[in-house]
Amino acid sequence: MADSGGMSSKVVLISGGASGIGAAAARIFAGRGAKVAIGDIQVEKGAALAADLGDSAIFVRLDVTSEASWREALVETLTAFGALTTVVNSAGVSIPASIEDETLDGFHRTMAINLDGTFLGCKIAVEALKGGKGGAIVNIASTLGARSGAIFPAYSSSKAGVRLLTRSVALHCAEQGYDIRCNAVLPGAIHTEMVEGYIAAGEAAGGSREDVISGFASVHPLKRLGRPEEAAAAVVFLASDEAGYITGADLPVDGGYLA
Ligand SMILES: NC(=O)c1ccc[n+]([C@@H]2O[C@H](COP(=O)([O-])OP(=O)(O)OC[C@H]3O[C@@H](n4cnc5c(N)ncnc54)[C@H](O)[C@@H]3O)[C@@H](O)[C@H]2O)c1
């Protein structure tokens, strides 16, 4: 097992680790020798992934909207693996609705998971990582936090918030002299359960699966959807010691969408 980027000394807590980009990151981290706590509300899926990864991983029940839940997940991670080095905030939801269709409750729900959840993840991370060495926080924002669409008032607002939250955390840690970097990955359309939700909605509206997928693909210059492991590779890089001089950055993994 190759130890690139100091991975064998990393203890990583991943929110939203049961599925998609978070799960792909868990696999890469574990494969490179890190210890991984997979945090999610999807207990069965998260536990199955942890079992598959063996001694390198545990599942911790985590609802990112609750500070108490974050604290419990942190304690479980510390108990299993010792000092935490890395937090990946991947938990998120994307529920399309235009400004005319979105409700205040719906808007709040998206903000609670995507933005409050990432805020809490950063807060817990800074608390746990300060005083340590090689700390890193990686937040999953979105290209839709840089450009928007008519059906994304809530999602785009939450992800734009995640981008600037990331920079503020990075600047604070630098100012305080903490050895903690904080960066954001901005995925384009990555073929996960989240995008499967859009495909199902497109099919329900009478489109074919192929048409919906090629619709997504067509707005990305590389003309295809990304794979979860392609977004996860950027997460792992930003978490690694190889990215030691990178903080406060946005890293698009978007097939050229933002170019
Ligand atoms: N897939 C894409 O095209 C895409 C594009 C840009 C950004 N993103 C972002 O990437 C991240 C991962 O998304 P994905 O595509 O892997 O989707 P996914 O649906 O496969 O995974 C999201 C995970 O978050 C978990 N989650 C939801 N609410 C939670 C909560 N309250 N507490 C803990 N976990 C919770 C879900 O259970 C799920 O396991 C999200 O933040 C998403 O917004 C995805």
Topology (SSEs and partners):
Layout: E1 11-15, H1 20-31, E2 35-40, H2 43-53, E3 57-61, H3 67-81, E4 86-89, H4 104-129, E5 135-140, H5 153-176, E6 180-187, H6 193-204, H7 209-218, H8 228-239, E7 250-253
Parallel strand pairs: 1-2, 1-4, 2-3, 4-5, 5-6, 6-7
Helix pairs in contact: 1-8, 3-4, 4-5
Bound molecules: nicotinamide-adenine-dinucleotide (NAD).
Nicotinamide-adenine-dinucleotide binds at residues 15-16, 18-22, 40-42, 62-65, 90-94, 113, 117, 140, 142, 187, 189-190, 192-195.
Describe the structure.
The protein has helices at residues 20-31, 43-53, 67-81, 104-129, 153-176, 193-204, 209-218, 228-239, and strands at 11-15, 35-40, 57-61, 86-89, 135-140, 180-187, 250-253. It is of the alpha/beta class and 259 residues long. It folds into two domains: 4-189 and 227-253, Rossmann fold, CATH 3.40.50; 191-225, no CATH class. A seven-stranded parallel beta sheet has the order 3-2-1-4-5-6-7, with helices on both faces. The radius of gyration is 17 Å and the shape is globular. The termini are far apart. The model has no long low-confidence stretch (mean pLDDT 97). The structure holds nicotinamide-adenine-dinucleotide (NAD). Nicotinamide-adenine-dinucleotide binds at residues 15-16, 18-22, 40-42, 62-65, 90-94, 113, 117, 140, 142, 187, 189-190, 192-195.
